[in-house]
Amino acid sequence: MAVNIRYLKDQLGILLLWTCGALTLGIMLMITLYILWNGLPIISLGFLSADPIQGGKSGGIFPTIVATLFITIIALILSAPLSIGGAIYMAEYAGENTLTRLVRFGADSLAGIPSIIIGLFGYLLFVSYTKLGFSLISGSLAVAFMAMPIILRVSEEAIKVVPESYKHGSLAIGATKWQTIRKVVLPTAIPGIITGLMLGMGRVVGETAVFLLTTGSVAQIPTSLSSAVRPMTVHMYIIATENISLPYAFGTAATLLIIVLIITLTSNYITRRYFVKLGGRR
User: Fold this and answer.
1) Which of 75, 88, 103, 276 is the most exposed place for a label (fewest CB within 10 A)?
2) Cα torsion angle, 64, 65, 69, 75, sign
3) Which of 146, 136, 130 is nearest to 199 (CA)?
């Protein structure tokens, strides 16, 4: 009887997990399909390649696509080296002590700060104090602070799960600590690091409040780092909340969703190919 009760509890737990997973997947698919259903009819070559007209009531979204890609690339260039370097130090050199616990607590706290707070911080520091103004670089610097803790924590965990036997084998044949990290640890942890970069990129691409306070709202192709720009999320917010064109807002949302999906699938493909190259299965 006791065995049957334990079995029933296990099956109930499995059923509960599957239900939660199916519910989460169902909600995600419902939102995705709703956006695509309303947005795909708007998307065309002209919509993707033209400039907005009358504040977004007609025309296209090409400058907003360029601005979003530029901000994402610059933010990752700024945040990835610091985050991955910090993860290497935390996982391989620092050890467990008060300092590392404080750094992890700070990173987790920074990752949970509301985006409007980061936006105010970016406005005060970059736009106002350093006189960078509403610009591409101000927005990129602000969202880089949002991506850093995510990349740091995910990369640290990816490095920590590399089997100790790999490191011991490398050290046993005479490799130095840094050679072991560079030739053994990092190549093995690359799939996890890529996941951290994708999560950081997702946080950057999906921001609106930060951009409203740092990038300005000029729908133009940036010619320099000091150019004011309008990312896709800001464009969606403006044309939807000001009742300019709800169909074009859905078209912009669907375009952004497709771009993120393409980047995610590409990164997953590269990760799988890398596993095959290492001789593993994924």
Assistant:
1) 276
2) positive
3) 146
- Tens of each residue's pLDDT in the chain, 282 residues: 555 777 787 888 888 989 998 999 999 899 989 999 998 998 888 888 888 888 778 888 899 999 999 999 999 999 999 999 988 888 888 777 788 888 888 888 887 888 889 999 999 999 988 888 899 999 999 999 889 999 998 898 888 888 888 888 888 888 888 888 888 888 888 888 888 888 888 888 888 889 989 988 888 888 888 888 999 999 998 888 888 888 898 999 999 999 888 888 887 787 777 766 666 554
- For residues 62 and 176, what is the distance between their CA atoms, to the nearest angstrom? 50
**Amino acid at residue number 176:** T
Q: 223 and 165 in contact (C-beta within 8 Å)?
A: no
Distance between alpha carbon 162 and the CA centroid of its chain, in Å?
23
User: CA 86 → CA 79, 89, 102, 104, 263, distances in Å?
Assistant: 11, 5, 13, 11, 25
> Taking the domains of the chain in order of start, what are their residue ranges?
45-278
Q: Give the residues across from 52 on adjacent strands.
A: 59
CA dihedral 241, 237, 29, 144 (to 10 degrees): -150
User: Cβ of 220: how many Cβ atoms within 10 Å?
Assistant: 16
Give the Cα separation of 251 and 41 in Å (integer): 8
Q: Which pTM was predicted? A: 0.85
The CATH topology of domain 45-278 is MetI-like fold (1.10.3720)
Dig out the tokens for 68 from the structure.
């979003």
Nearest to 218, CA basis, from 205, 228, 232, 233: 228
